[in-house]
Amino acid sequence: MDADVDLAKRLARDLDGSFEALVVAHQDRLFTIARRLLGDAHDAEEVAQDAFVRAYRAIEGYPPERVRELRLRPWLAAIVVNLARNRRRRVADRQPASPLTPLLENGLDLEDQASARPEARHATAESRREWSARLAALPVAYRTAVVLRHVDGLSYDELAVALGRPEGTVKAQVHRGLRLLRAALDAEATTDRHSNHTEMSA
Amino acid sequence: MTTPLSPDRLAELAELDDHAPAGLRPDVLVAVGLADRYAPIPTPLGELHVAWNGRGVSWLGSADRDDFEAGFHRTIRRPLEPVDRVPDRLGEAIERRIEGDRRVRIDLDLRGRTPFEVAVWHKALEIPRGEVRPYGWVASEIGRPRAVRAVGSALAHNPVPLVVPCHRVVRSDGSIGQYSLGGPDSKLKMLTFEGLAPLELEAAARTGERFLGSDTTHIVCLPSCHNARRITPRHRVPFRSLAAAEAAGYRPCRECRPASGATLVA
Fold first, then answer.
1. What distance lies between CA A181 and its chain's CA centroid?
2. Out of B12, B27, B34, whose CB is closest to A127?
3. Which of the four pLDDT bands, split at 50, 70 and 90, describes residue B220?
4. Is B47 an interface residue toward A (CB < 8 Å)?
5. Option in B1, B4, B24 nearest A182 (CB)
6. How far apart, in Å, are the Cα atoms of A193 and each of A106, A185, B174, B238?
7. Do B22 and A115 touch (CB under 8 A)?
8. Which pLDDT score is estimated for A195?
9. Which of A69, B4, B199, B234 fits a 20 to 30 Å CA distance from B132?
């Protein structure tokens, strides 16, 4: 948080000299948000890149006092959320559903394996795949709220800024999203019990 | 509000973070114009190199990579990275521009250049393929008629030769003048490639043929103007000076505007 306040000050003073630091500090989270909102890693990379370009141009046009006051975490998240929304619309116009999306969602994603650092404390591939599918099944508004709050780790205050809605509204969206995830987990548990039972009786 | 998911489950969600692909950072820096890429490009002068970023083309020069990078870094302080090929659309646009298509749009990254230099390069872009204009013409056209030397210097520092056709600006006496991209021989080669006979023009200028008029239209042009080149030999009337042409009742061509810089030529 303090690092971002300092970064905003540096951006206000010298955009070209400090923009790379902004990219380094925020590229993983912007890519993660885009990835969770869109599913496809390639789309996510394009959206994250576009988000940084928009951020650069916006800062270029803002007066320094406005740049100094920027809350970088929610501000950048908002740019990604908007671009992901546009991207989904474009994709939906172009084709009903990408035949590759289910494959990627189901773990046929080599890029993900390659880019994961071995020392990173990641959930197992199995668990990640399951969570990807559960998140993808959520209505977009709830998925966005849950991803920003629980994957990206924004506070409710930051989430309200990012989504441009009152804190009460975003809290309710997160809560409903989590309830739907809970329902999905319960349904999976029932199916598992059911299939175990079938196996045993066979 | 109690959370519907257990802390363990929420921790699993928090671990869904990804690492950005390695290419994201360099792509972003190039896209916003904080770093450049370069690749080989075919030209009438052989294979050269061109550099670009998200703002536009930034440098065009030597076939030799070390020379190219040294030239780039003499004036530009951004990181420069070689890649295998120029993006398709940019490559096609440059090819069409070199072929003489002035409608094709190519963004240029001219940050850090003086307004005077930029004005000179933009003026050079207005000269059609296969035609030449004197340095004094450029100076006069940009409203700085006395800055002929500075025009020469700006053209010598053109970061994107061929894309900005500085080879189409020659000396007022018709001789070919200097060229930043490999010297006068390259300039000769480019003008010949564009269908001009630069040595003939030079010879004609030496004999005093600085302007050409048509006795049917009574319009006087610079000798390489496409309108002048359409005049059949029977109707071609050479002039030493614009004053002589005007005295004979000729008016200057509106396209090549021979009056620009003409007082300095005389």
1. 16
2. B12
3. very high
4. no
5. B4
6. 22, 12, 93, 101
7. yes
8. 66
9. B234
DSSP B142: T
Distance separating the N- and C-terminal Cα atoms of chain A: 57
**In chain A, which segments carry CATH 1.10.1740.10?**
1-98
Are A45 and B25 inside 8 Å of each other by CB?
no
The answer to ipTM > 0.90 is: no
Kindly report the average pLDDT of chain A as a whole number. Answer: 85
pTM of whole model > 0.90? no
The tens digit of pLDDT for each residue in A105-159 reads 444 444 444 444 444 455 577 888 899 999 999 999 999 999 999 999 999 999 9
Give the CATH number of domain A99-202; options: 1.10.10.10, 1.10.1040.50, 2.40.50.140, 3.80.30.20.
1.10.10.10
The ranges of chain A annotated as CATH 1.10.10.10 are: 99-202
* pLDDT value, residue B50: 98
Nearest-by-Cβ selection for A31 from B5, B24, B32: B24
Q: What is the pLDDT of residues B14-36, one digit of tens each?
A: 999 899 999 999 999 999 999 99
Taking the C-alpha atoms of residue A5 and residue A77, their distance in angstroms, rounded to an integer, is 16
DSSP alpha helices (H): ranges in chain B? 7-14, 24-32, 65-75, 88-98, 115-125, 135-141, 148-156, 184-193, 198-206, 226-229, 242-247, 262-265
pLDDT higher than 50, residue B256: yes
Q: How far apart are CA B216 and CA B226, in angstroms?
A: 16
Mean pLDDT over residues B144-170, rounded?
95
Residue B24: what are its φ and ψ, rounded to 5°? -65, -50
Q: Which residues in A lie closer than 8 A to residue B18 (C-beta atoms)?
A: 28, 31-32, 35, 44, 112, 115-116
Above 70 in pLDDT, residue A200?
no
Mean pLDDT of chain B: 92
Q: How does pLDDT run across A55-82, given as a tens digit for each residue?
A: 999 999 999 999 999 999 999 999 999 9
Residues composing chain A:
202
Alpha-carbon span B187 to B253, nearest angstrom: 26
Residues 54-113 of B with CB under 8 A from A: 54
Measure the CA–CA gap between A138 and A115, rounded to whole angstroms: 26
**Nearest CA distance, B115 vs chain A (angstrom):** 21
Helix (H, G, I), strand (E, B) or coil at B178: coil
Quote the CA–CA distance of B225 and B208 in Å, as a whole number.
17
Question: What CATH fold (topology level) applies to the domain A1-98?
Answer: Rna Polymerase Sigma Factor; Chain: A (1.10.1740)
